[in-house]
Amino acid sequence: MEKILFATDFSSNADKAFKFALNLAEKRKANLVMVHVFDIKTVWTYPYTNDPFEMKTQAMSSWERSLQEFFDHYDTEVKARYMAVEDPSVVKGILRAIEKHKPQLVVVGTKGKSVIKEVLLGGTTKALVKKSPVPVLAVPQYAELRDYNKVLYASDFREVDLEAMKQMIDLLKPNQPEIRVLHISTDNDYKSVEKMEWFKEMIREKIGYENITFELMLSGDIFDTLNKYMSEDDYDMLVMLEKERSGIIDKLFHQGLVSKMEFRTWIPLLSFNEHFLSVSGKQDVKEHDIIEH
């Protein structure tokens, strides 16, 4: 991992999320990209100049200084770059930063400075989960920074889960975590046992990570069951896919689950976008074919 992008609105929860980003960067020897998205309209109340372009330039410089000052409070050997993005859409601004710097992970908090910011940043997190081409680590307000020794991966036992697990294991490699793969089956998912055995075999063949266990549960309310399951054990991270809804089981399993969990969990939520994982997997196959031939 070379780069981790951290997006902040300078709220207290964003400060907490930064500790997670910095911790991962230190363990993975990655660089940090510090990003703040601002709307130039908020600067019009105290313009430095009558020239709108110059005003934007000065505002960007001011926010980048603020990012650097924030980072300089921490004693770390991690290298950082600073990027202020002017955009009325926080989501689009962060996506522009992702496009420019091409990080392998994005870290955000899920609460903001005020009620309005709270809605904004929460909506930003959900939109990033849906649109980000790289994994998003959402850090809840009450999350505690600790080692990722025990990870819960909520799976639907699909092939795209394998790519997500590969990336997750690579990210958490320094911790060598214990991974529990949980599938919560609906009443009409009568092939769950077969799917789980198939998935186990795929894990053994394509990933080879030893410290993985599997569990299958039956429930009509997946969201509540998952919450209860997490409350009964002490997990350090929850990992899920943002799925492209393509069938009945997907809709039953998903139902906006990633978006809901981000606000309800007390542990960090690492989410992968199924669409970009599928595209990445196909690209890897093409590159492999080119090398082989």
Description:
The chain is an alpha/beta fold and 293 residues long. The chain folds into 2 domains: 137 residues, Rossmann fold (3-Layer(aba) Sandwich); 136 residues, 3-Layer(aba) Sandwich (Rossmann fold), CATH 3.40.50. It has 10 helices and 10 strands. The chain has a 10-stranded mixed beta sheet, with helices on both faces. Helix 4 packs across helix 9 and helix 5 packs across helix 10. The two termini are 28 Å apart. The C terminus is likely disordered.
Shape: elongated
Residue fraction in strands:
15-25%
- Rg, Cα atoms, Å: 20 Å
Q: Tell me roughly what share of residues is in helical segments.
A: 40-55%
Q: Average pLDDT, to the nearest integer?
A: 81
Order of helices and strands: EHEHEHEHEEHEHEHEHHEH
Low-confidence stretches: 114-121, 247-253, 283-293
CATH topology of the largest domain: Rossmann fold
Total of helices = 10
Structural class: alpha/beta
CATH class of the largest domain: Alpha Beta
Which architecture of the largest domain does the CATH hierarchy give at level 2?
3-Layer(aba) Sandwich
Spatial strand arrangement across the major sheet:
3-2-1-4-5-10-9-6-7-8
Quick structural gist:
This protein has 293 residues and is of the alpha/beta class.
Layout of secondary structure:
Elements: E1 3-7, H1 12-28, E2 31-38, H2 52-72, E3 80-86, H3 90-101, E4 105-109, H4 115-131, E5 136-139, E6 150-154, H5 159-171, E7 178-185, H6 192-206, E8 212-218, H7 222-231, E9 237-242, H8 248-254, H9 257-264, E10 269-273, H10 274-292
Parallel strand pairs: 1-2, 1-4, 2-3, 4-5, 6-7, 6-9, 7-8, 9-10
Antiparallel strand pairs: 5-10
Helix pairs in contact: 3-4, 4-9, 5-10
